[in-house]
Amino acid sequence: MISLEKINDWKWRIPKSGKMRVDGIIYASEKLLRDLAQDPALEQVARVAHLPGIVKHSIAMPDIHWGYGFPIGGVAAFRPEDGVVSPGGVGYDINCGVRLLRSEIPLERTREKAKDLVAALFQNIPTGLGSHRKDFRLSVPEMKKMSGEGARWAVSRGFGTREEIEHIEENGTISGADPDQVSEKAYERGRNQLGTLGSGNHFVEVGFAEEIFDESAAQRLGIKKGFITVIVHTGSRGFGYQICDDFLRVMDAAVRKYGIDLPDRQLACAPLTSPEGKRYLSAMACGANFAFNNRQLITHWVRESFEKVFQTGPSGHGLGTIYDVCHNIAKIEKHLVDGKEVPLCVHRKGATRAFPPGHPAVPEVYRSLGQPILVPGDMGRCSYVLVGTENAYQETFGTTCHGAGRVMSRHQAKKAARGRSIVKELEAEGIHIMADGYDTIAEEMPDAYKDVSDVVDVVHRAGIGRKVARLKPLCVIKG
Amino acid sequence: MEYEIIDHTADIGIEVRGKTLPDLFRNAALALFDLMVFTDRIGTGVEKDVLATAEDEEALLVSWLSEFLYLFDTQGLLVREIEVKTFDPRRITARVRGEPFDRTQHRAKREIKAVTYHDLKIEKGKSCFKARIIFDL
Questions:
Q1: Cα–chain center distance at B35
Q2: Catalytic one among A317, A327, A402, A460?
Q3: What's the mean per-residue pLDDT of chain B?
Q4: Which sequence spans correspond to the domains of chain B?
Q5: Is A470 an interface residue toward B (CB < 8 Å)?
């Protein structure tokens, strides 16, 4: 059993014990902690603290739940000289992430077209098992170019605008990508999956700004109460899964080679200075760049869908990217340690970068505000827009939560949905949904998730993110 | 189908059985396809040889199942029949029959991202072999 010390109402400590090198820190309310009591995630936070070169704390966000090796909602940073990089600290879906779009379309104009819109999105965006656009299959050399260049690749082919690139984390390209470190198998798996949504918790959601908490911040982001927004949630598809798979094997051998003492085989990792560690970061960057392109292409098809349904050109809908963030990533970033700025390898697995006002990585248009963050909830309740804070930079390596987190297993959710029509229930609330997989809607129903408001409340009160607006869903497509 | 779904918060797991190890491997692969689609309408027009290798039995199970995810992602292959040709704890070969996924024929259930090593165990019971496998969704 993990023992927790209360620091304050929003923050708890797992004190260093045994071979833990640092404390674990959990951001959660008492209510959220109760849900966690049965989950092995807290134990995972403690285990991550065993890894060599870990700095400050092994951190968990309030939406934490069990993940492979590292918990989902886990954050850990490592020193370049004696630290490690772990594929389990990133996840199978490299750069699974979200993009938030704003528009000039008021809610009233959308309600009556909601059914057409959800159908158009479902038709234009390949969704679910094995689906892909017939007009889109890349050669392996083109795949290499795309995964090396990042989102610039899509933009140079007419999918999106140059200005849009600045509204993506790392300007849409994780540096250090080396396409030669990616296996043939990954290229083969990824070739016809660029521009596809996938299944599971991935979605495209049209919604609207229901409540604004900070008027001037919302204005800066281009969010207006009662106007349409769009969220795109997907990642690197089979390309990323294969890269992760390939490197889990490499890391398993590396653990033995470098004599790393691990409490759990799933934490397999390699020193950041080793060839294995460097190769993983180079391949992972390719996976991340695939995901940026994936969201860029889907954004293009979202625009096309709006143009068709509203019979308008781009100026008629004004769909523009507010920001695009990674949820699953390991990156070399500069952070404060003992008052000094040093490079660290930050792992965020199911967590969002939340850089403060004034940080040079925040796009100039938002610099005095802080980095925009989107925290998606389930398909029935709501999502939140936040901005990064100085406190997040000080406490969590500039990181905040990434979503609601599941509370029911898929099996439990299916049972709970038996005899109900989730589609009709949502329709009664004005939410139109289309899904490809037979079980998807039941498994992904709102009750299967924690209330994202509880999660966001914790990060807001703990000061590792600041609420700007709440968005309400209107149309959702899922895999 | 010789498997049951086991509860897991974010992902999905199965417990699968087989009289022999080759049988267990075969049933695990068929279960994988049963998680992805309704399998009753999969034809057997395509034949293929599948090979997987690994350092030990459990890693072999992961590698074997991952091979089917690869075949699905690259060729859309849904498998209906599996004949294990040779088996040792580090290498398995099989002849499989199935057909490419066709949305008008096969109803999709869900996509499986990966096969994990989490809690992976192959156990010899009194009358059969059992394995627990967690898939990443």
A1: 10
A2: A402
A3: 94
A4: 20-101
A5: no
Q: Do A437 and B111 touch (CB under 8 A)?
A: yes
Beta bridge partners of A473: A207
CATH architecture of B20-101: 3-Layer(bab) Sandwich (3.55)
Q: Do B108 and A437 make contact, defined as CB atoms within 8 angstroms?
A: yes
Give the range among A305-314, A389-398, A402-411, B82-91 with minimum mean pLDDT: A402-411
Domain residue spans of chain A: 5-478
Nearest CA to A94 out of A269, A242, A260, A287 is that of A287
Q: Does ipTM exceed 0.90?
A: yes
Q: Is the pLDDT of residue B1 over 90?
A: no
Note if A402 is an active site residue: yes
Position B7 scores a pLDDT of 79
pTM: 0.97
B63 → chain A, closest CA residue: A245
A324/B contact by beta carbon, under 8 A: no
Residue A38 has pLDDT above 90, yes or no: no
Calculate Rg over the CA atoms of chain A.
21
pLDDT value at A223 more than 80: yes
Whether B100 has a pLDDT exceeding 90, the answer reads yes
Distance CA A242, CA A187 (A): 9
Looking up tokens 């690869």 gives: B70
- Do B12 and A238 lie within an 8 Å CB cutoff? no
Query: Of 3.30.70.260, 3.90.1860.10, 3.30.428.10, 3.20.20.30, which CATH number belongs to A5-478?
Result: 3.90.1860.10
A439 touches chain B (CB under 8 A): yes
**Dist CA A87 CA A280 (whole Å):** 8
Pairing of strands A466-478, A432-435: parallel
Write the DSSP string, A2-59: ---EEEETTEEEE---TT-SSEEEEE--HHHHHHHTT-THHHHHHHHTTSTTB-SEEE
CA A291, distance to chain mean position in Å, is 11
